[in-house]
Design brief:
The chain has 504 residues and is α/β, with parallel strands linked by helices. It is built from 19 helices and 26 strands. The N and C termini lie far apart (63 Å).
């Protein structure tokens, strides 16, 4: 592989193999790596590090690291290190099945925190000092600044705080990424903070490259490997119905004068249902839309290409193979319409509130009062993590949660008497949507919220059962403000664990 993407002669002299670079990471280190939802993560060094760890374990030696990233990564990073039991602590978000298995077995400590909190918590010193940062870039400029690749995430913070830095220059990443990024260097610690000067989602307030003290760069590695590209399933009937309910609601809000004709900046979680919503927006008649979100997936590229979406601000990509090809083929077009930021800006509560974002995120379950569980199955088994959903739910103009009304072949109801784990309280939830319908919970006291959710969102197989619970709770509960029968409130979950179904 050529060094032509490394224009700084000082850093050309530091090119080494990925195998050698991995030897710079020692047992017990806190290692911060790039990567956000399978984009922009280092492709080579983590795999050689995993081999070192495996060999050390075969010799009976202890070797694990604390791993920090922007969000989830890919099998070449999270998966490779988890398989060899190389991670002692993981933060802040993951979606890898091998890591998940070890977390739920109690073998891997996991700190699941809001994505907007990560950078500031590290700056506050709440975690160990960062020993090593491993960061993927698409090129190195003559002045030593780094052109980010397909995610920015927490890379600015990692480069600022790490004692030593390993750079992977990935030649698979298109050179056309240069100019797409907007890295803001105006943050500070309390009490010296100032307002972030972003008043429109497409404002540019930073620079297009990352800075790093060249004396800290211990190694540069050349790679040529793709991001993780997972295809999305075509929208099924339930996803299309969920999208239809939500789009009808947004049109109603425009007609009532509560939203402008081009809505407000959209935030969308990753997955087939959010992608179906985006696909529905393409044919809904809306125009001149905006997006201020964490991740761009296929549906947003489609909206940009169709002229429905004017711009999209993000910190990373989650694209299918076909969408990746489209992005790389027409990167000059997308560079004029996509702005990539650090996640402390893309998810910043102040900006989310200022812009009035419409947050659309998935959930595992909701209870009858609108509390949301988006992270844990049956209360104690982590799925992925809270990610950025809380940043937008607490601070956005509208917080919308989406899910099919049932799971596991109809044995689980997504609407339950009491959620088994709370990520978003009833105070932060405006709208819940399933394929059965939409519940607008704004302005409703608890018992009215319960009736609205039961009438509109619950699957018919569970509606009478849940209605019976609520009526008996209203009659027999200790208090009548938020009626619950405590011996029964979590009995649906226990019944599923015992019998394989929530049905009574």
């Amino acid at each position: 592989m050529s060094v032509e993407r490394i224009l700084d002669p000082r850093l050309r002299e530091r090119v080494v193999s990925a195998e050698h670079a991995a030897t710079l990471i020692q047992p017990g280190e806190t290692v911060a790596m790039s990567g956000f939802t399978g984009s922009g993560y280092p492709k080579a060094v983590p795999q050689f590090l995993a081999r070192r760890i495996e060999q050390a374990h075969e010799r009976g030696e202890e070797f694990r690291i604390n791993l920090l990233t922007g969000a989830s990564t890919a099998p070449e990073l999270d998966g490779a290190l988890a398989k060899v039991d190389g991670i002692a602590m993981r933060m802040p978000f993951q979606s890898d099945p091998d890591a998940r298995e070890r977390i739920n077995a109690g073998k891997l400590d996991y700190l699941d925190i809001h994505l907007s909190h990560v950078a500031q918590h590290v700056w506050f010193g709440f975690y160990n000092e960062i020993d090593t940062a491993v960061i993927e870039v698409s090129a190195i400029q003559a002045d030593g600044t780094l052109v980010p690749s397909t995610s920015v995430g927490n890379n600015k913070t990692w480069l600022d705080l790490a004692r030593k830095v390993i750079i992977e220059v990935n030649q698979w990443q298109p050179l056309g990424m240069d100019g797409m990024h907007d890295v803001y260097y105006g943050t500070a610690l309390p009490p010296h903070r100032k307002p972030i000067p972003l008043v429109r989602g497409d404002d540019r307030i930073g620079q297009t490259t990352l800075r790093c003290d060249p004396d800290k760069i211990a190694a540069v590695v050349l790679t040529n490997a793709p991001d993780r590209n997972s295809p999305f399933n075509p929208p099924d009937a339930d996803s299309q119905r969920i999208a239809g309910h939500l789009i009808d609601f947004l049109k109603h809000e425009v007609a009532r004068g509560r939203l402008p004709a081009n809505l407000l900046p959209l935030q969308s979680g990753v997955g087939n249902i959010p992608n179906a919503v985006l696909a529905g927006l393409a044919s809904s008649g809306f125009r001149d839309l905006e997006a201020f979100t964490e991740v761009i997936q296929d549906g947003m590229l489609d909206l940009l290409r169709a002229g429905v979406l004017r711009y999209a601000s993000c910190t990373g990509f989650a694209l299918s193979p076909a969408a990746t090809e489209e992005f790389m083929r027409d990167i000059d077009f997308y560079r004029q319409r996509i702005i990539m930021r650090s996640q402390e800006v893309s998810n910043h509560p102040e900006l989310v509130r200022r812009l009035g974002c419409i947050g659309m995120n998935g959930m595992i379950e909701a209870d009858i009062y609108g509390n949301i569980n988006s992270t844990h199955v049956m209360g104690s088994s982590i799925m992925n993590g809270i990610g950025g959903s809380g940043d937008f739910a607490r601070n956005g103009f509208l917080s919308i949660f989406l899910s099919p009304s049932t799971a596991k072949n109809g044995t689980i109801s997504a609407i339950v008497p009491m959620v088994s784990h709370v990520d978003h309280t009833e105070h932060d939830v405006a709208v819940v949507v399933t394929e059965q319908g939409l519940a607008d919970l704004r302005g409703l006291p608890p018992r009215a919220r319960a009736r609205t959710l039961i009438d509109n969102c619950v699957h018919p197989d569970f509606r009478d059962q849940l209605g019976d619970y609520f009526e008996r709770a209203c009659r027999d509960s200790y208090g009548k403000h938020t009626p619950h029968l405590l011996p029964e409130a979590l009995s649906w979950h226990q019944r599923w664990l015992d019998t394989g179904t929530m049905k009574a």
